[in-house]
Amino acid sequence: MMSKSIRYVEMSDGHEIYTVIYKPEYPPIGHVHILHGMAEHIGRYEEFALYLVSKGFLVSGHDHRGHGQTGVKYNQLGFFADKNGFELVTEDVREVLQAVREDIDCPKPILFAHSMGSFIGRRYIQKYGNSVSKIVLSGTGGANGLSEVTGKWLATGLSVIQGKHAKNPVLYKLAFGKFNNSFKNVKTEYDWLSSDAKEVQKFIDDSLCGYPASNQFYVDLIDGLNIIHDGKEIAHIPKDLPILLISGSLDPVSGNGKAVWKVSEQYKKAGLTKVTVVILEEKRHEVLNEIGKKETFILISKWMEKI
Predict the structure, then answer these.
(1) Which domain holds residue 34?
(2) How confident is the model at residue 148 (pLDDT cuts 50, 70, 90)?
(3) Among 161, 237, 253, 274, which is disulfide-ready with 242 (CB 3.0 to 4.6 Å)?
(4) How many CA atoms lie within 13 A of 208 on its CB side?
(5) Domain holding 243: CATH number?
(6) What does pLDDT average to over the chain?
(7) How many structural domains is the chain composed of?
């Protein structure tokens, strides 16, 4: 039978990261590690994880600092760290993977990284690309208002004046305020996540989703957005690393897919030779929680299974 285990993995700075592992009944064909998005948690990916397990994969994932059970443990939802938070959460991926893989015999892991998790994943392959076999970047985006110089100044200024842990709605509006604008008959502020109203309501009803982030969190996120678009850093990604960029055609985070193509072009310009783009028509930001999601599960799984 499939087994599920939960543990807290201690990082080199002493911070403990909530980690979950799903093991198939038989020896796994591969290892997939999931990086979740902003203001959500790894538990939201269980249906997808169980599907991958049914296909023979061992699946693991963790709650980033300031998120899910990791954030609850330290009473720090929406906060990475006092400084260098984006680099810390990237290093967490490396350390969690080392711990998870201590007692399993699998090929190099495949990363599945969604939204903010895709930004962390993009940084990870800049630093440790040779340690993974493939990466799926779901709902990723390009530079936006937050990554402009003014956005950085604003977030830094608010962090200094109000405090790093303080939360200011201006930053949220700058980052997400326009995401519902292209949709008609909007019923909630999160309609941009999915066209499936039930999935949107699950997000709203989840106490570990949709909470405000701290001033310092936005400073860290902007730093991350800037570095993952830096050509010098992109040059460190292995040229033959298979990358799947997947997004909905109605995803505002990706500019309705336009930003995904820009990321693809930037990667190809850097000499990456195995970049694939899939734009799912009429799907919004969370392609794993959209109507017809089973087809998306199948598509991603088949790509992962390719040698």
Answers:
(1) 3-143+231-305
(2) low
(3) 274
(4) 20
(5) 3.40.50.1820
(6) 95
(7) 1
